[in-house]
């Protein structure tokens, strides 16, 4: 092998980079574990909400403290947290939601709630069609309007030809042009909603939040791993944006109050002191030291200015709308102190109704601490703003005459009058623009302004101007975003999934490592080293790109581990063939690693799987994307480690004079001199496969498949109880509450149930979700003991009974999810069909591979249909099941392509032999590799199935069935079909 030194250098450097990236996860986890320990030690009555608050308090206190010192640089907890590998919802807990900005309400708003009959009839028809269509709402509306409009145009004054849209839609303009304008307005509304939601989420404080728009569908996906206060999150993301314009007090006007308040706070907190720790190089900081709570330290008196830093105005030039600043970690304490009755009593009469609001953005001080500004708003008895946001017609970021960024703003007639009065009354003073109780800007008013005005500032950046323009447009948001799909996983269930998954994953890897050594001896040890390096590389890359690791993602890693082992098995079996043919060790190794040897089959198998991964990533969503990402990363790393790392180790051993035999006393002689006549048994195989498939299809059409809520719509709750429960009894009890009996099944342990219902799923609104959850609690009350509704709700850690996880999917999006999944499956099959056709240049090979894959999928579906009613674990057909099916597809193709590659080789080398003999001998020669690879893969999957979490058992069962069926089909379906198709093709010529 050439360039050994370069490969060795690359492997070492890449390994070090991977370890470096994973170290951030290690140190972040260590700090988070310390936070949990602190919360456990200080919580009262094991209160989950208080425990979460204590964890947050601890993490806030160490946010900017160094936790990793590499000598040349240091990293704080905030730094390592930003670089750690992210865990998905199913492993960490949290909330994943898809929100729908109602395009219908946007259209109503743009039409000034038109009463035009054709317009309203088109909206009703579009509503109905959307339930079973994947087209956008605007497309459906446009089609329906064309059907009923007759001579009426969308630009009619009674629809969109309004005064407010007169500069965008001309009188008597054609419908197609109006439609383009409407699409722009809808995109603008969705974009505004997106920015508002992103701003809210950034302030929520969870690690690695994810928010993204889903095409032009009006949907926004939000994922908040680790979020525990689910009620607060749902309110945060569904409440309508509230834009307000307020007069403000200057720092000069409130500084007297701050000084009075400072003295009063010192008096109130005279018994509450902070500590000034004495430096001691022999003593490490413990939890209390980090939180400033060590009792044996110098006492320092607290006051308001311990937490708040006033912006003092000593001259007219220093007068500002910014009145104070504070550390972000101290804002809750400042809010609490400023709301105290004793402090509010100090306010002079002219400041009686003042309310203090924080800036929407933070700044970093020289030492890296996050600082945020405070403003004093001139509120009133009714807390009503001078101007509300619904008066804004449009806003945009523009440039002034000096090419500096500013914000252009246009108001309606009512707003113009209010704005003109507000600015006229405050010339030389400041006006604050506030969204969701955060101040976005508080500029100085230099002149009275009218309907068109601009907001500018000497240091305003383009990004800040764009943010402010977005905020101003948020004032015309037509509706709050509505949750159409939500998945909530409680932290307790997430932690259990982590513990079970990683324990079983570790056990599975251990079993594979042992098997490879038992079977291949020292060569197996080299393969194990390559496998461990491969796992290091995969996790290192995931950490480097801040990718999210999920349970389906782990499945992708499992598949690549199987492929990595498979590559070494193929190579080792080829080397053994050379040794068996009396070739020297060096020559056998050279041939085994060559393109003519094992490399061709390895590359073909990896490319087919890679193509599957790409299609899945493009068409898939959620779990399918996670699976596809880890699969693609794993293919690249497994190819490198299996071929190059193993080769380096083997060559090194040979150069040292080691006699490698590639077997042990345990495995010597296995699968040698085998000559099975597979093709003679193909008719029996066809009958067996046909019977199983027919039974499965009959079951699917009669019994059906148990679709998950993500495919059929509905609500699903995993509820844990304090004692064993009867699913039948609970279903009967809940029938009285819901009107119809929900589907209830034991989920894992016998004190845990999965309850699925379609009760009121067609109704919209957050209040409906709350009412359904309350109905569930009421129905389960006889079994919940002393559990309160507050503790029953999902979120926070559960010590007793309560909802461990929750999923809701509205029927409309359920159809979309199902359609996307089908596109992903059939898209991957089409691409693989074309690749195999291109690679093998015969359609018979493509037919054999694709028929085998369909065979495997149908059998797995049939098994699920026949067994789901009595299996002791969840066997729903949903997105995770699709990921499992695609894993089966990838595995089956991998197996089939390796066999086909060997058949092609035999056909080329032994041209005078009949095709049937070549096929049988080729398949027989790969039998050792086929069985060995299947056995190692099954070891991994069985370990995870037996010892993994409850949520992954159905997923792993599908994989186990798929691997067994895939191994069988590559031998008895794909190859015979390919042979029969080749014979037919030859006859037709």
From TrEMBL:
Keywords: Cell membrane, Membrane, Protein transport, Translocation, Transmembrane, Transmembrane helix, Transport
Principal place of residence: membrane
A GO biological process held by the record: protein transport by the Sec complex
One GO cellular component, as annotated: plasma membrane
Domain Protein translocase subunit SecDF P1: 192-248
Recorded family membership: Belongs to the SecD/SecF family. SecF subfamily. Belongs to the SecD/SecF family. SecD subfamily.
Protein name (record): Multifunctional fusion protein
